[in-house]
Amino acid sequence: MLFSSSIFLFLFLPLVLLIYYLPLGRFRQGQNVFVLLASLGFYAWGEPWFVLVMMGSIVVNYGFGLWVDHNQRHNHSARMPVILALVVNLGILFVFKYLTFTLGILNDLGAHFVIPGIELPIGISFFTFQALSYVLDIQRGHGQVQRSPLKVGLYISFFPQLIAGPIVKYETVADQIDHRKENWEDFSSGCARFVVGLGKKVLLANQLALVADRAFQLGGMGQLTTGFAWLGSLCYTLQIYYDFSGYSDMAIGLGKMFGFHFLENFNYPYISRSVTEFWRRWHISLSTWFRDYVYFPLGGSRVNSKGKHIRNLFVVWLLTGIWHGANWTFIVWGLFYFVLLMLEKYGHLGRGWPAVCQWLFTFLMVNFAWVLFRADSLGAAAQVLKAMFGLGAGLWSSETGLYLRENWTVLLAGALFAAPVAACLRERTNRCRSVLLAVGYGLLAAAIFLVSASFIIKGTYNPFIYFNF
Description:
The chain is mainly α. The protein folds into two domains: 6-180, no CATH class; 186-274 and 350-468, no CATH class. The protein has helices at residues 6-21, 28-46, 51-73, 79-108, 124-140, 149-157, 170-173, 176-179, 184-220, 226-257, 275-281, 284-298, 306-324, 328-346, 355-374, 378-388, 398-417, 421-432, 435-457. Helix 9 (184-220) packs across helix 16. It is globular.
């Protein structure tokens, strides 16, 4: 079930909120059980069989959490349950996401495995990382073990961030499961945040996707001009930002409606002046997950040699690429960022440059990286990159002009709001405390919702990029 679908907006969400606040408003345990059941139903709507995989993940990680807690309370090592939790969780992820890719590689090397047809459960990378966070945070003493499997289930399956993040670490919400406090301020703020995310998704990302998809289609056929290559890559760069940050906005807003407070997942990444800064602003929940559970345990930057630090960064960025998908494009994408970060940290790349040059270089590198990320194969990515450097089917085409004329307003709006323009306006509005401005903001939010809803009802193109992960 998509957040940007009529069934979610006009049936599922209103019904869940009504039951949550009216008959169950003063009964926390009842609210938790109800939201858990609603979350399982939300997932089962599109994945009726794969909900069993998630329920299995809940049960086994509930058991691992109890095992870790038992060993720690009795002064025994928690090493064994933690290792088994890693093996089981990553094993499940490997089977569903990477087995066919691995068997294909082995067959290319001369093996003769029969490659099974395995469907990928939506959001398996997200809920697997959350399940691991539960066990690891108990082991680190960053959260109390849950004696009730229903509460573990609520943490892992909570529908706002279940299938495309943000990845919520257990320590962030451990206390909120029983002790969150709903109020009108949070609820109204959550509604506004949800509407902003919906607008990002429906009014910007979906429209930009039409141009990007056409460009990469032409690239695969070797018919991409230089102009369309740049137009398509820029549209995809903006599309993936508004698609994913829009989903994160909706997830954070929904969380607030139920009294949960999730950490931010995006902070205007396209204003970054270095790749290091970009990854502090982009998909923050994934970056912090790898930092806390992989990079720091390996020693981080506090190791006794440059070689070990480079190894640690290599492992993190290799895993970051692999996490995103079973394709060489994602692996090369992750390693491309590893190389850029090494050049920044040890080659002083960009240091001392004028600010505008630092920003332009960073943006171009991110744009090139998104071409790798979007392409179906390394060969397809090479076709698009070649066209961007003038080695395609000419410099310009009438189709390029047509797509640009039809979409320049969306492209301009996307570029404008990728900078903190809206945040500055919102801050000034809050400082003014004007009733007129508050009413105007409410009317604007209502207009965004109505226009977005009209697009949804008409059944326009409505993909979600990160559902694939």
